[in-house]
Structure formats: C-alpha cells, structure tokens
C-alpha cells in the first residue's frame, strides 16, 4: 500500500517502516523490546523525513533534524494517532506473547511433574490393592472403589498439591484469552496499521504549514537551496489526495484463524481445571480397574467384602488421615514447590497482561523454571510466596524465551462432566457411581490409559 500511495518517497525511506515491523516481530519472538520506544523510534524519523520532504527547498543538517524531533511531542504533527496506536500495539502484543509464553511454560510444568515420585508407602499399598487377592484365590477380583480412591489419593498426594495454583493459572489464562478475542485482538490491531499510519501522515499534511512555521520559530530559519525537478515533484506530496480505496482492508481467507486457535486452546485449558484432584477418580472410576457399583463383590484389601472406610478428602494435608497410605505431609517436596512457584509467577504475569501492563521475560540460554519480573512502567513486580519452598526469587530468575512461542499447548487432560464439583469432594449419581469424564469432544472415557501411563512414570 505504501509503495502504491507514496511511490518513490516511500522507496527512499522504506527502512523506517521495515524497522518498525522487524521490531514488532523481534518482540514477539524474543522479547526485551520496549514497544512504546519502538513506536516512538518509528514516528520520530517519519516526522523528520516528512518535514524535510515538505520543506525540501531548505537545507537541513543533523543538528536541525534533532531539533525537529525534539518539538514533536509539543507539536503533535500526526494528531493523536501515535499515542493511540502505541497503546493498542503494546497491549495486544504483550497479551499475545504472554499467552503463548504461558502455554509453553505450563507445558514444562506438567512435564516436570512427571519427575515427582509417589508419596509415602504407595508401592506397598498399591500392591496390596491390586495383587494380594490372588493369594485368596480370587485374582480377577477388582478392589472396592473407596479402597482404590484412598490408595490413589495417597499415591498421588503430591500431584494433587498442584491443584489450587493450577486452577488460578487456568482462570488467569482464560481472562487473557477473553482479551485476545476482544479489545486486545492482535489481528484487529495489526491488519489496519498501514491505514493508521496513512491517517497520521494525512494529519501532518493538513497542518504542515502551521507545524513548519512553529518549527522554524523554535529551531530557526534555514537557508534556501537550489531546487531541481525532482525536488518539485517531492513537494507535490503536500497536496496529494489519498484514494479511499487504498484504505480498504483486504480480508484473506485463513485456516485456521487466530481467533479459532485461541478459542480452541482456551477451551482445552479450561478443560484441565481440577485435573490434578481428579487423577484418582480417572483410575478408580473404571470398571476394568475397580468395582464401581457399591453392591458388587470387591476386594477390600484383606478379603472379599465391603470396604467400610470412607474415602479421604482431596489435598495433601488431608492425607495424614489416609488409612491406606502413610504420607508425611510436613516434608516439603522441592519439585512440587518449584512448580507451584512457577505457576504463581505465570498467573501474576497473565494478570498484568490482562490489565495492559508490561510483562518482562529475562532472556537466558539455560532455563529451568519460570522467571521473575514484570510490571515495567507500572511500578509493580511479580511478588509470589511459596510456603516451605526454601527458594529465593533470585534463585528462580530464569527464562524460557529461547523456546519457540508458536507451539500449541499439547496437554489436553480429561475433564469432569460437572464443572460445579469442588476439589474436596466428588459427587455420585443416583446409582452411587462416580462421575465419568469426557475428553472435551463429547466422548466419554474413564481416562484409564492416561492414568496408567502416569503410574508407570511414578513406579517405573
């Protein structure tokens, strides 16, 4: 569009435009770019170039060009376009990049949880639940549901410890998604950027005489120079009328659209809410692994009969009352605390992005956890606290920015049918059967294969 509209003048100064778009791309890929400064670095030289073109009968030196730039904020030759566009660019790019970074870091947190072993004497309890019935001559008898739940809640006690912060992260990411589908939509901001810039240029043209006179009064009068035919052609830009058709946004078909990707990812992440507390139910709500119906014969851990103990509540602290697995709830798990800490940081960054604040990511080659630091220009920083973590904020001041930001979130856990169920209890239906789960596509599944893989990782 710029080449068609401005011709040779654009070609001679195209680097001003390409530098801006390269800066925006560099910010998305690597960060560490001040977007407000990048926009200022675009409009200031654009203003200087236009001023010299519109006043090409004068001779300009570097000192005078600096003076021209110094008067830009006071004169506002482009109207309010630079300020509005800078705000739109900043908040949409920050939110988009934070969204992508948060997905990558959440994936790493999930992968790190694979290194978290089983809690307490899980091995003995699991063997007693799944194998000891063979000694009683009933090798195919499945364990009672509450026995299974107590064993698995004890075994996965540390995994369930991630539940609260994970849910906070999911909520924060959902809010940023809402922004990206609304006022922070990066496509809505970027696609018409050429029109916004042209609008700024036209504002300057309309007020060029007044702006020039004020600059001359502030910076001094210049010496005239000899004008060539080429100079005269450039001066004609002052009265150039832009064709309206050049301002139309051309919609090209995309598959899939950015909006669709954000909606899909948003739903998949929402489906992961309460995933950690439901891990035991994924396994024990499977008739191939445990007896689901209360009136069916089952293995109670020592004999064929009813299991009379109640299932303990979810959460690490509640496992001190677990009758099947002895869990030391006072002993901190560094891996778990690190992931909780990282989630707190991510949630804080997402909240800043939601509010249109800066979000900083520190670039380093090696990274092992989410990094600290955001709120530049806002007067705030990410402040998080993890009880018993033993880690200082500087110890975890690492980064993931060298990783690709375009990966799609691969972690798609199953979700409970009822989104109203709390994390401390799971309701049964009228038949006393624990709720089944679906994978977000309407297909019901017990999630057995997923949890079995998890168990292999724990016990392997």
From TrEMBL:
Keywords: Cell membrane, Glycoprotein, GPI-anchor, Heparan sulfate, Lipoprotein, Membrane, Proteoglycan, Signal. Residues 366-400 are annotated as: Disordered. Pfam families: Glypican. One of its GO terms (cellular component) is synapse. One of its GO terms (biological process) is regulation of protein localization to membrane. Signal peptide: none annotated. Coiled coil: none annotated. It is found in: Cell membrane. It is a lipid-anchor; GPI-anchor. Cell surface proteoglycan. Belongs to the glypican family. This is Glypican-6, putative. The gene is 8235893.
């Amino acid at each position: 569009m710029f080449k068609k509209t401005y011709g040779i003048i654009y070609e001679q100064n195209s680097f001003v435009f390409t530098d801006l778009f390269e800066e925006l791309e560099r910010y998305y890929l690597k960060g560490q770019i001040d977007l407000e400064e990048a926009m200022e670095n675009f409009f200031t030289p654009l203003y200087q170039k236009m001023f010299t073109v519109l006043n090409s009968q004068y001779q300009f030196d570097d000192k005078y060009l600096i003076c021209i730039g110094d008067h830009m904020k006071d004169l506002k030759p482009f109207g309010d376009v630079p300020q509005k566009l800078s705000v739109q660019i900043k908040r949409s790019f920050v939110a988009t990049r934070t969204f992508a970074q948060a997905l990558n870091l959440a994936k790493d947190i999930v992968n790190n949880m694979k290194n978290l072993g089983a809690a307490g004497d899980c091995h003995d309890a699991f063997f007693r639940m799944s194998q000891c019935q063979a000694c009683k001559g009933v090798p195919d008898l499945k364990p009672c549901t509450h026995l299974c739940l107590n064993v698995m809640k004890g075994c996965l006690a540390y995994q369930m410890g991630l539940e609260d912060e994970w849910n906070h992260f999911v909520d924060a990411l959902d809010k940023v998604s809402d922004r990206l589908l609304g006022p922070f939509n990066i496509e809505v901001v970027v696609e018409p950027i050429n029109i916004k810039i042209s609008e700024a240029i036209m504002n300057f043209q309309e007020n060029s005489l007044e702006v020039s006179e004020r600059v001359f009064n502030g910076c001094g009068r210049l010496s005239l120079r000899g004008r060539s035919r080429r100079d005269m052609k450039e001066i004609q830009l002052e009265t150039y009328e832009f064709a309206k058709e050049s301002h139309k946004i051309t919609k090209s078909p995309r598959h899939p659209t950015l909006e669709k990707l954000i909606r899909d990812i948003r739903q998949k992440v929402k489906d992961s809410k309460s995933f950690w507390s439901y891990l035991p139910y994924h396994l024990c709500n499977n008739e191939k692994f445990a007896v689901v119906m209360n009136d069916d014969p089952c293995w109670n851990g020592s004999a064929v009969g009813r299991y009379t103990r109640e299932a303990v509540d979810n959460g690490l602290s509640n496992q001190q009352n677990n009758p099947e697995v002895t869990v030391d709830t006072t002993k901190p798990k560094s891996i778990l605390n690190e992931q909780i800490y990282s989630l707190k940081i991510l949630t804080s960054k997402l909240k800043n992005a939601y509010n249109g604040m800066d979000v900083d990511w520190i670039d380093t080659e090696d990274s092992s956890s989410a990094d600290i630091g955001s709120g530049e220009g806002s007067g705030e920083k990410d402040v998080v606290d993890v009880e018993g973590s033993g880690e200082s904020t500087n110890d975890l001041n690492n980064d993931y920015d060298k990783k690709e930001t375009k990966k799609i979130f691969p972690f798609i856990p199953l979700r409970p049918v009822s989104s109203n169920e709390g994390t401390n209890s799971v309701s049964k239906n009228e038949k006393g059967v624990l709720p089944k789960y679906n994978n977000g596509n309407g297909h019901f599944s017990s999630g057995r294969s997923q949890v079995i893989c998890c168990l292999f990782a724990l016990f392997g």
